[in-house]
Amino acid sequence: MRGSFRSEVSGWRLIAGYLGVVLMLIGGIILLPLLVLAAYPGEAVWASCFLVPGVGSVFAGYLFYLLIRGREKLRLCGRQDALIVVCSWILAILFCSIPFQMTGQYNLNQAVFECTSGWSTTGLSVVDVEQCPRIFLMFRSIMLFFGGVGLVLVMVSVLSDRHGMRLYSAEGHSDRLLPNLVKSARMIIAIYTGYILSGTFLYMVFGMDWFDALNHSIAALSTGGFSTRAESIGYYNSAAIEAVTIVLMLLGCTNFLAHLYLIRGKFGNFFQYCEVKFQLFVCALFTPVLAVFLVLGGFAGGVGQGLRDGIFQAATALTTTGFQTVPSFAVWSSPLILLMTLLMLIGGGTGSTAGGIKQIRVCIALKSLCWSLRARITQKRTIHADALRKLDGYEYLTPESRLENLEFILLYMAVFTAGTLVLCACGYGIGDSMFEFSSALGTVGLSVGITAADAPPVVLWAEIIGMFVGRLELYVVFVAAVQFGREVKGGYKNRKRGFGSYVG
Predict the structure, then answer these.
(1) What is the pLDDT of residues 179-217, one digit of tens each?
(2) How far apart are the first and last CA of the chain?
(3) Helix (H) or strand (E) run with residue 8 in it
(4) Which band of pLDDT confidence, cut at 50, 70 and 90, is reported for residue 339?
(5) Hey, how many other C-beta atoms are within 10 angstroms of the C-beta on 347?
(6) Is residue 316 within 8 Å of 323, Cβ to Cβ?
(7) What is the pTM of this model?
C-alpha cells in the first residue's frame, strides 16, 4: 500500500509535471530556428541566443517531468486544466523572449510583446523586418505555427494521456476529428502542415523565394500576419500572390473539423456549415463597401483595384490575419477604420487559428435577435425550433445556451472597452485606440501606427494582455487565475497544518 501511494501523483506535483513536459517542448521549439543555419551559415553568430534558452528549457522541463514520470496520475481537481494551459502559454512566451533579449537590441517589454504576438498568432510587431536576421524571422514564424495549433494539441499528439481531453478543451479546441484524441491531434497537425507546404509551393510558383514563401504560408494559415517585408503582401504587387493568401487565410479561420469534411469531399456539409456561409456572406457584403471608400479616399486607382484591395482587406480583418496590401492605416478615413474594426471584432471560426468574438457567436446573437423579433411580431401561436446548421446536422439552441453566448460577447466588449480606454488615456484618439486594441484583442495584427518599438510600456503591456486573453479566450484565463489562488491558499494551509503537527 505504501509503495502504491508513492506511485500516485496529484495536486501541484501533477501540475508541475505537466508543465515540465511543456517546457521540454518549448525548448525543442526554441532550437528549431537553428536549422536555418544550413541555408544561411553566416548567421551562426546568433546561434547561442537559441542554444542557451533552448537547452536550458529542456533541462528544466525534464527535472519537473521527473515528478510524474512512471507514476499514476490522479484526477485533475477543480480547474487545474485551465491553470496548466495558461501557465504553459506564459512559460512559452517568457522562454521564447530570451533569444530576443540576448541580442541586446530588445528590452523585456519589446521581447515579451513580440513573443506574445507570435504565440497568439496576432502579428503586431516591434521588429524591423528589413534589418532583422533571417533566423529570428523564422523563429517568429515557428511561434505562429505552434501558437496556431496550440501547445496542448502538440503535447497530446506525442503523449497519450487520460487527462488530455480536459487540457485539449481548455485550450479552445471544441471538436475532435476522430474518436481517438491522439489521432485527432495528429490529424489536425497533418492537415495544417499539408496546407502550409501547398501554400509555400504556390507562392514560389508566383515569384517568392523559398524563405519568404515558407514564412508567408505559415503566417497566412496560422492567421498570424508576420511578414518578412515591411510592406507585407503589398510588397509583391501580385494578384496571384494575393489570391493564394486569401485562400490560406480563409482556410486558417475555418474550424479544423470542417477541413476533414472538405478533404473527404463532403462539400454539402462544408458549405452548409453556418460559419462557412457566414464568413463568405460577410466578405461579400463588406468587399464592395470597402472598395467604394478606398476609391473615394484615393487609396485605389480605380474600381478594379478597389475591389481587389477591398476583398483582401475584408479577408485579412475577418480572418484576423493582419496582412495588408494598402498604405498605412494611419491615413485611412474614419468610415474605413470603423468597418475594419467591426470585422476584427467579429473574427474567425471556432476551433480555428483565428481570434475575435468568433463567427458562430455572432451568428447566434443575430439569429437570437431575429427570433425574438419574430416572436414579438407574429400573431400566430406557432412553436419554432431555433437551430443552427452544423457540420453534421442541425443543433437546437436552448435559452440557456443563447444567454451564455450573449454573456461572452458582453464580457468581450467590456475588455475591449477597457483596453481602448487605456490607449485613449495615453493620448491617442478614440478611433485609433479602438482600431489598435481590437486588433490586439482579436489577434489580428493590423495597426494605425500606435504599436512600435518606442511605444509607451503601458501601451505594449495593455496589448500584451489583450493578445493573451484574446487567444486563450476570456473565461479560461479568469478560471486559471481563480484556480491559482486556490492552489496557493491550499498549499499555505497544508504547510501551516504540517508545521503545527510538527510543533505539537
Answers:
(1) 566 677 778 888 889 999 999 999 999 999 999 999 999
(2) 27
(3) strand 8-9
(4) very high
(5) 30
(6) yes
(7) 0.90
**Residue 147 and residue 118 in contact, taking contact as beta carbons nearer than 8 Å:** yes
* Structure confidence by residue, pLDDT tens digits, 260-301: 888 888 888 888 889 999 999 999 999 999 999 988 887 777
Cα–Cα dist 227/214, whole Å: 11
Residues comprising the chain, all counted = 504
CA dist 144 → 117, 173, 375 (Å): 8, 17, 45
Residue 234 to residue 368: CA distance in whole angstroms: 40
Residue 67: name the closest of 8, 18, 17, 6 by CA: 17
Q: Are 92 and 119 spatial neighbours (Cβ–Cβ below 8 Å)? A: yes
Cell output for 185: 491531434
18-43 confidence digits (pLDDT tens): 899 899 999 999 999 999 999 999 99
Centre a 10 Å sphere on the Cβ of residue 458 and count the other Cβ atoms it contains.
Answer: 13
One DSSP character per residue, 376-443 reads HH--S------EEEETTEEEEPPHHHHHHHHHHHHHHHHHHHHHHHHHHHTT--HHHHHHHHHHHHTT
CA distances from 5 to 73, 243, 401 (A): 11, 60, 42
Question: 501: burial class by Cβ within 10 Å (0-12, 13-18, 19+)?
Answer: exposed
Other beta carbons within 10 angstroms of residue 210's beta carbon come to: 12
Q: Write the DSSP symbol of residue 455.
A: S
Contact, 20 vs 63, CB < 8 A?
yes
> If you compute the radius of gyration of the chain from its CA atoms, what whole number of angstroms results?
23
Separation CA 444–CA 304 (nearest Å): 26
Alpha helices (H) along 222-333: 239-252, 256-263, 267-272, 274-296, 303-318
CA-to-CA dists, residue 122 to 142, 195, 282, 389, angstroms: 13, 19, 21, 29
Percent of the chain whose pLDDT exceeds 90: 57
Contact in structure between 215 and 137 (CB atoms under 8 Å): yes
Task: Kindly state the greatest CA–CA separation across the chain.
Answer: 86
